[in-house]
Design brief:
- Helices cover 34% and strands 26% of the residues.
- By secondary structure, the protein is an alpha/beta fold.
- It folds into 2 domains: 144 residues, Beta Polymerase, domain 2; 55 residues.
- A hairpin with a 2-residue loop joins β3 and β4.
- Strands 3-4-5-2-1-7 form a 6-stranded mixed β-sheet, with helices on one face.
- The model has no long low-confidence stretch (mean pLDDT 94).
């Protein structure tokens, strides 16, 4: 799906006004950035199942050495005063990512991917930038998994608040079983981590 088609479907949806307004600003910046070779929206917005609490899932491919510059470009579209939590990580030295939770409980997760980082985007996705048909080498015709990723405590304590925030969203949607299952796995993973920390080296 092209970005203009995406906007036609989502622009007038009152439940996602905040996310779409932010995404428009980010998309404009990515389209102007010489560091961006390709960019897509994935997740619930691409699958047309987004709601008031859905996060924006964004993947932006960068030119060689342009990862941190592109991250800065994206961050400049976000008002710092509205950010409640920020979670920073790295796929590799030139492929940073961030997860942000805002005061209104909307959120965004964006990954900047360098040419050396192996990553393929599966269907469906929304195309924002595709310079010189770059996305053709980074996308797959296969459908992304529909089952929730149950990998827990992947980044340790640093991302614990993000994981709990996701559980709150599932509870708000009425998915009590999924939230409880995740919390049980999360508790076991935390206990295992604490045991490993206490064990003699």
């Amino acid at each position: 799906m092209r970005f203009q088609e995406f906007l036609e479907r989502w622009r007038n949806n009152p439940s996602t006004t905040l996310q779409v307004a932010l995404l428009i600003r980010i998309a404009d910046a990515l389209q102007e950035s010489p560091d961006c070779t390709g960019a897509v929206v994935v997740g619930s917005f691409a699958k047309e199942s987004a709601d008031r609490l859905s996060d924006i899932d964004l993947v932006a491919f960068c030119s060689e050495g342009g990862g941190h510059s592109l991250l800065k470009t994206i961050n400049q579209q976000i008002a710092p005063s509205k950010v409640l939590f920020t979670f920073d990580g790295m796929h590799d030295p030139d492929s940073p990512f961030q997860k942000l939770v805002f005061e209104d409980m909307s959120s965004v997760e964006f990954h900047v991917v360098s040419p050396k980082t192996e990553l393929t985007v599966e269907q469906p996705f929304v195309e924002i930038v595709n310079r010189d048909s770059y996305l053709e080498s980074r996308t797959s015709p296969h459908l992304s998994a529909t089952k929730r990723d149950m990998t827990v405590f992947r980044h340790g304590d640093r991302f614990l608040a993000w994981e709990l925030f996701n559980c709150l969203k599932w509870l708000w949607r009425g998915d009590y079983t999924g939230a409880k299952r995740y919390l049980v796995k999360l508790g076991k993973a935390i206990e295992a981590s604490e045991r490993n920390d206490r064990s003699p080296s």
